[in-house]
Amino acid sequence: MALTRRKLLAGGAAAAGAAVAAGCGGGRTATTATATAQRDARAAEDLSMWAGVRAELPLDPKLRHFAAFLLAPHPRPVQAEIERHRRLLDADPEGYLRAADQRVDVAGAAARYLGGGRDDIALTTSTTMGLAILYRALRLGPGEEILSSVHDHFATDEALRLSGGRVRRVRLYDTRDPARASADEIASRLAQAIGPRTRAVALTWVHSGTGVKLPMDEVAAVVRTAGEHHGAKVLLCVDGVHAFGAEDVRLPGAGIDFFAAGCHKWLMGPRGTGVLWGTPGAWRRAERPLIPSFANASYGAWIEGLVPPPDPPGPAMTPGGFQAYEHRWALPAAFAFQERIGRERAAARLRALAARLKAGLAEVRGVRLVTPRDPGLSAGLVCADIAGVDPGKAVQALAAKRISATVTPYAQRHLRFGCGLAVDEDDVDAAVANVARTARTG
Length: 442
Ligand SMILES: Cc1ncc(COP(=O)(O)O)c(C=O)c1O
Description:
The protein is an alpha/beta fold and about 450 residues long. It has 20 helices and 13 strands. It has two domains: about 105-340, Type I PLP-dependent aspartate aminotransferase-like (Major domain) (Aspartate Aminotransferase, domain 2, 3-Layer(aba) Sandwich), CATH 3.40.640; about 345-440, Alpha-Beta Complex (Aspartate Aminotransferase, domain 1), CATH 3.90.1150. The strands form three sheets. A seven-stranded mixed sheet has the order 2-8-7-6-5-3-4, sandwiched between helices. A four-stranded antiparallel sheet has the order 9-10-13-12. Strands 1-11 form a two-stranded parallel ribbon.
């Protein structure tokens, strides 16, 4: 039987089920079952106090969790959604998959959270996947280049290298003393570095090696002005993973053209979920999927012997293949959880905890803050050095006191704390006291 595009779109075969279930089809409404589950979770939770928020996280209460941002715990309502989908998927994999599109619109939920349209968003499994898809797809003419920085994570550096594109890097602040970075310095160094051949700027919003947060409004203004000056639009491409859920990120109008982020860090979404967001105009310059999409339009075109179209771009750029769907379908529950906490309220909480930690560490003899004190130049990450103490040894000393922290995974190593909703003031004070002890005793 020939499976026509029309039949595929009508969900006439297992292949159609797979395409639709990839979470990039056209469904819009959550079912009553989803709504009921969310209502039940809401009834049980009390997010009015931070202890109530913390109670929704299944973390070991004996530890102080300054590393929970790295790979987030699943908050209770997210876990409940994963479990619900897993049970139903296990019971009838094909049937549950086939009807998925009518039940949950993951890209639509992401678009409501970030802004823009659902078709602007490709669903990924991580920041790294989003960056790889983006930089591989970006179209550059002969002699054109991408400008990046020396502050980015391995994921950006390596995705750029693998893309084969021409890349130049700029230093936006003194890496020997990031705490002294300033918005003016970052903006002027970037402005000077953008040249007539620059077609994209690839940056990281919050640097996980130093905790420096780029002043995104200023950065976006510089990129826009440079493009106007040189007579060619320059795309601003951002690894936003340490801003997503740590800051109140709202995209259209922010001057960002592409935003890649995993949802499994500060947002506390299901592990193995991510988004790659682009403006409709930006997608026109990055239309080459790395992995075949299972979206209706792509799969249907193939069945008809046609080349899959680039539109709509989000679905066309969403990697196909069967996925850990129970995680992907639970992503709307993570957005809903953040909304119930309050996005600006959560961001303010993180700023307050980070400010308390920085103020405490700044008072400790032998400790040097790496992250700027200015909340305009920092988010939830706080990095520091202890004179004469290797950061790895400092992490071990903290672990002995049940304080979980990390070392920055970069050539320049620092002690790093994540001030997220998994910690409170008492945790922060305990971290400061223990760093002080390590600084005294070496
Ligand atoms: C700045 C930055 N980008 C990307 C990543 C990788 O994120 P993901 O696991 O979502 O690919 C990390 C750390 O894990 C990071 O610090």
